[in-house]
Amino acid sequence: MDTILNWINENSGLIIHYGIQAVIALVIFLLGGRVAKFCSNLTEKAFEKKKVDKAVGSFVSSIVYAIVFMATILMALSQIGIETTSFIAILGAAGLAVGLALQGSLSNFASGVLIILLRPFKSGDYVEAGGKAGTVKKIEIFSTELRTPDNKVIIMPNSKIMSDSIINYSRESTRRIDLVIGVGYDADLRKAKEVLKSVLDQESRILKDPAYNVSVSELADSSVNFIVRPWVNSGDYWPTYWSLIENIKIALDDADITIPFPQMDVHLHKQD
């Protein structure tokens, strides 16, 4: 015990010096974390003021946070006497090893950068990507967040999105509804066509330009098929789609035009 006390007395100045440096390093680390968060929030707000896509702002702010926080760690280490140049070299070598082990994560990061640069979609778009569909909420460094119509959250790796085809249902202001309506072979085709047109004419959400198309497309096994292709604003797609399905069925029933359905005739033969 006396030996320890003597050592402390002999090296008290050095202990105080390194203690102060350690406290300063801790303060730098704690303040640096807050500064990194502040810079991240400031970046995101700046993008919002410029009316840049929220997903882009979220992505860039994440990178800003990572850079500032890494700089804070290096400053704190330098304060307690660790040679940062050597540390950076060691960090680089370790980074290479970790990079090889985390190729998937780096692929997600690179794909996130490509999403920001190429902008195949933006926040608020309804897309189908990587086998999933939903509204884009956020684009992060490694993943993109989608929300389904039934309010499920899908966290999709960026690499999976960029490695597959992307369908953006919201980019264009208008969309075409494609319906196939079958009528019986005994139906009056001219009358059926007029009934279909009348339903479209009564739907106010259907655009006049481009004009809709109603034509016979196929003589199928059990029905004569019409294609019904009206154009609507993208936001009106599903309400109009559902409304047309219902109103076409009602209108054809009122006109005594049958819509064929699969059926099977069973013949029983009586043996003597």
Automatic annotation (TrEMBL):
Name of this chain's protein: Small-conductance mechanosensitive channel
Domain (Mechanosensitive ion channel MscS C-terminal) spans 177-259
Q: How does it sit in the membrane?
A: Multi-pass membrane protein
Function statement: Mechanosensitive channel that participates in the regulation of osmotic pressure changes within the cell, opening in response to stretch forces in the membrane lipid bilayer, without the need for other proteins. Contributes to normal resistance to hypoosmotic shock. Forms an ion channel of 1.0 nanosiemens conductance with a slight preference for anions.
What are the Mechanosensitive ion channel transmembrane helices 2/3 domain coordinates in residue numbering? 63-103
Entry's localization field: Cell inner membrane; Cell membrane
Q: What does the subunit section of this Swiss-Prot or TrEMBL entry state?
A: Homoheptamer.
Q: Which family is this sequence assigned to?
A: Belongs to the MscS (TC 1.A.23) family.
Record SUPFAM superfamilies:
Mechanosensitive channel protein MscS (YggB), C-terminal domain, Mechanosensitive channel protein MscS (YggB), transmembrane region, Sm-like ribonucleoproteins
